[in-house]
Design a protein that fits this description.
- The protein is an alpha+beta fold.
- Helices cover 59% and strands 8% of the residues.
- The protein contains 23 helices and 13 strands.
- Strands 1, 2, 9, 10 and 11 form a 5-stranded antiparallel sheet that branches. A 4-stranded antiparallel sheet has the order 4-7-3-8, sandwiched between helices.
- It is flat.
Length: 832
């Protein structure tokens, strides 16, 4: 189990790097990913650090790359990801990268500007083409109206007058603004204008956004300069574009020919510009992933170098870092490679340091264990060298989930889904999307696989397969002496297990629940009793195991006082009450068979009477001989454990203080040091080859000058004692959620079967086949949505709570901080 059981042994090291070799050494350490650097300049502003200019240059490179990436995606060009992971380029290559990115950005901006200008000209010419085409009909109608007016004047023998000349403006406006535009013209001009409009059939492309816009051509007739000014202001307010339009047909025809020629020439130029832009973006798309990696690695290196200090000679950089002791040799080799790559003649130096600060917690995980470790870390990172619950969670978490989710059919679907994700792991990882829900499912694929596998196991224990029982081995109940008439004439038949012709106790169902119970009216009563006792048993076993794991912590941290004053009383208290309850559960199952089951006492009444010291008068009512004396003894021992947990540890700490022995506290650790200074104690432990547990970061190792407050210690111990004693009761009751959720899942599954799929199975012949085909999709969707997703999430959260609160509270503090090494691999994963 190695470092997964406890944190890797960590050490604080000091690095001395020559200025010319620092970049290459940090690059090698980033590729290795085993060093967490400390900030030696916490009071220095980020803008006042040595390499702030280099960081700004990297930010600028990333900005240019993001601009190129945006343009590539906008053009719909796929970005090639070859999986290449180049090393961080040397500092001199940074200038070449900057020049390349600057050239590409300027070229793209110039192309975009030119393309936008060309598109704007193309749009204007297209709108002018439609105006010339549409307004021709407007002028023809106007001419016809003037001729009719002249004819009317001559017919009435009115004096001949000159025709009224009207001014006009023509333009284009967005279709959705036209109704408001028309109303505004009518109101502002008091009805003294004449508006004609028609829609352009094909939508036009906006040169800025690229969206397709529907527009309308309009022409407004008016008389007088005052109305002309007013109309132009209204057009400007509604963002209508006005175009010059000749008055004579010949001029309009000549302008239309010129416009069509210019449109064709402009279309050719636009196509050439688009082809050139596409070629530039395709070329950039082949290298942009590699460029991003290089730029981010350079930026990460300079960010890290800003954490270092300069020595007085300004020629050496000094760094402090946490690193695993087992990997010191690999770190030194990386430093040696970095020094060689830089061409420096002075080697880099790594020195181990002694410190009182708490090292970070580092558990080595792989793709299988990382998901379970994340479940534990989400509650709290383990204190340094504290027992890690993750190795045990790998088994207990999916098992408790399966106890609540136990259905072999549903577990099979879940396991197959997880197996598909594991089988196509590499392809799915390369095609990983930004969807948060999918990332969660994929990251927990091994957790889901084990949950499905354990659910299949518990499903066979419960004999549940989509709410139906499987008669694999043949039921132990028989109806040999019951006639068909008895079955037809009686809705309910009672099967007595004492009748050997009906039940054969010598040959019980080999594995799981007998399938006959699926047909029984008292099925829920029977399963409730079984699952309730099973839940309490599993809960007491897991809590007892958690208390036993606290012994491993006390032994590792050399805390014999807590072994005798905390661990032993806690275990005895738990075993005397709840361990005894589990024992009599099994004793009742074994000692009382069907023939004498009516004599079996109630477990709940037995436990209540045990604490009230109420016992039966008749000896025949006891479960076993000596029950009265044993139960009294267990209650007295459990009661005696409470003052032991409350007073023994504070008393010995008080005695140690009075006798001059100081207690060195390291969080959960306490060590007696006789007359030795704290630093001496640390050095002595290191000389003996043992790693002493450090105090929490920023906290003193002991209170040398502060007054010893026995009252505060007693209050602290009383809180922990009350929390444990009451927690044993509440946590045992909390495990009944295993029974409750198992019952709920089974009942929901049965309801879904009977109300959906059973409809189709109730018909016979081809009608039944057709109805079954029609209702099966609904059954499948509801099964996945309700029983797998919703019920699965509910069981997952309840199993998580049982581990966080009921199990881990017995031994796990989770007050540490995570080891976060400087790693290029983690950096690339965060940006993907």
């Amino acid at each position: 189990m190695g470092s997964l059981f406890r944190s890797e042994e960590m050490t604080l090291a000091q690095l001395f790097l020559q200025s010319e070799a620092a970049y290459a050494c940090v690059s090698e350490l980033g590729e290795l990913g085993l060093v967490q650097f400390r900030d030696l300049n916490p009071d220095v502003n980020a803008f006042q650090r040595k390499f702030v200019n280099e960081v700004r240059r990297c930010d600028e490179m990333e900005r240019k790359l993001r601009f190129l990436e945006k343009e590539i995606r906008k053009a719909g060009i796929p970005i090639v990801d070859t999986g290449e992971n180049p090393d961080a380029p040397p500092p001199r290559e940074m200038i070449d990268l900057e020049a390349t990115f600057e050239k590409l950005e300027n070229e793209m901006k110039e192309v975009n500007t030119n393309q936008e200008a060309l598109k704007r000209n193309f749009l204007e010419l297209t709108e002018l083409k439609h105006i010339l085409r549409k307004t021709q009909s407007f002028f023809e109608e106007e001419s016809a109206r003037v001729e009719d007016t002249q004819i009317l004047i001559h017919a009435e023998h009115l004096p001949d007058t000159q025709p009224m000349r009207l001014g006009f403006v023509a333009g284009v406006i967005n279709r959705e603004r036209l109704p408001t535009f028309e109303r505004m013209l009518w109101r502002a001009c008091r009805g003294n204008v004449f508006l004609r409009q028609t829609e352009i059939e094909t939508p036009l492309e906006d040169p800025v956004t690229g969206d397709q816009v529907h527009k309308c051509v309009f022409i407004i007739f008016f008389q007088g300069d005052q109305l002309k000014t007013r109309v132009k202001k209204i057009c400007e307010g509604f963002r209508a574009t006005l175009y010059p339009c000749p008055e004579t047909p010949a001029e309009r025809r000549e302008m239309a020919i010129g416009v069509m020629t210019r449109i064709e020439d402009l279309q050719t130029v636009l196509n050439q510009t688009q082809d050139h832009r596409h070629r530039v973006l395709v070329s950039a798309a082949k290298n942009i992933r590699v460029w991003f990696i290089k730029a981010r690695k350079i930026k990460a290196i300079y960010h890290t170098l800003n954490l270092f200090n300069l020595d007085v000679t300004q020629k050496c950089l000094i760094a402090e870092c946490w690193c695993p002791v087992a990997d010191l040799e690999r770190i030194q080799l990386a430093l040696r490679r970095g020094t060689e790559h830089s061409g420096s003649s002075v080697p880099s130096i790594l020195n181990r340091m002694t410190t009182k600060q708490a090292p970070p917690t580092y558990h080595k995980t792989n793709k299988f264990t990382s998901g379970f470790q994340a479940l534990v870390d989400s509650y709290g990172v383990a204190s340094y060298c504290e027992v890690n619950p993750a190795p045990f969670t790998i088994i207990t978490f999916p098992f408790l989930f399966a106890v609540m989710f136990g259905d072999a059919g549903h577990g099979l679907i879940m396991a197959l889904f997880a197996l598909w994700m594991v089988w196509r792991e590499k392809q799915l990882m390369n095609q990983r999307k930004d969807d948060g829900i999918w990332s969660i499912f994929f990251g927990g694929r091994y957790i889901i696989l084990l949950m499905g596998a354990f659910s299949i196991y518990t499903g066979f224990i419960y004999n549940d397969f989509f709410s139906k029982s499987l008669n694999i081995f043949g039921s132990s109940w028989h109806m040999a002496n019951i006639s068909d008439d008895d079955i037809k004439n009686n809705e309910l038949l009672e099967l007595d297990p004492n009748v050997t012709a009906i039940y054969k106790p010598a040959s019980p169902y080999p594995f799981g629940i007998d399938p006959i119970w699926n047909l029984a009216e008292n099925k829920i009563t029977f399963l409730n009793s079984f699952k309730m006792k099973m839940s309490v048993t599993l809960g007491v076993i897991q809590m007892s195991f958690g208390v036993c794991l606290s012994l491993s912590n006390y032994r590792f941290f050399k805390d014999p006082l807590s072994m005798f004053s905390v661990f032993i009383p806690q275990l005895m208290f738990l075993m005397c009450i709840f361990g005894y309850m589990v024992i009599i559960i099994f004793f009742k199952w074994i000692a009382y068979d069907a023939s004498i089951s009516y004599k079996a006492p109630s477990l709940l009444i037995t436990m209540i009477n045990m604490f009230l010291f109420k016992f039966p008068d008749s000896q025949d009512d006891y479960m076993y001989s000596g029950q009265k004396g044993l139960q009294i003894f267990l209650v007295l021992v459990a009661v005696a454990c409470v003052p032991c947990m409350l007073f023994i540890k504070p008393y010995f700490e008080w005695r140690a203080h009075k006798s001059g022995k100081r207690t060195v506290r390291f969080g959960t650790v306490q060590m007696q040091v006789n007359g030795a200074s704290e630093d001496t104690a640390v050095i002595m432990d290191q000389d003996e080859g043992e790693m002493p547990p450090p105090p929490p970061e920023g906290a003193p190792a002991h209170k040398e000058e502060e007054e010893f407050d026995i009252g505060e210690i007693l209050i602290h111990q009383a809180i922990h004692t009350i929390e444990f004693c009451l927690g044993c009761i509440s946590h045992t009751a909390s495990y009944l959620r295993l029974w409750a959720l198992s019952l709920a899942h089974a009942q929901l599954s049965e309801v879904l079967w009977s109300m959906v799929l059973h409809i189709g199975l109730g018909f016979k012949g081809w009608v039944g086949a057709v109805v079954t085909i029609l209702v099966f999709p609904a059954f499948a969707v509801l099964t996945v949505a309700i029983l797998l997703v919703m019920e699965g999430l509910s069981a997952f959260l309840h199993a998580l709570r049982l581990h966080w609160v009921e199990f881990q509270s017995k031994f796990y503090k989770g007050e540490g901080h995570q080891f976060v090494p400087f790693s290029f691999e983690a950096l690339m994963e965060d940006h993907n």
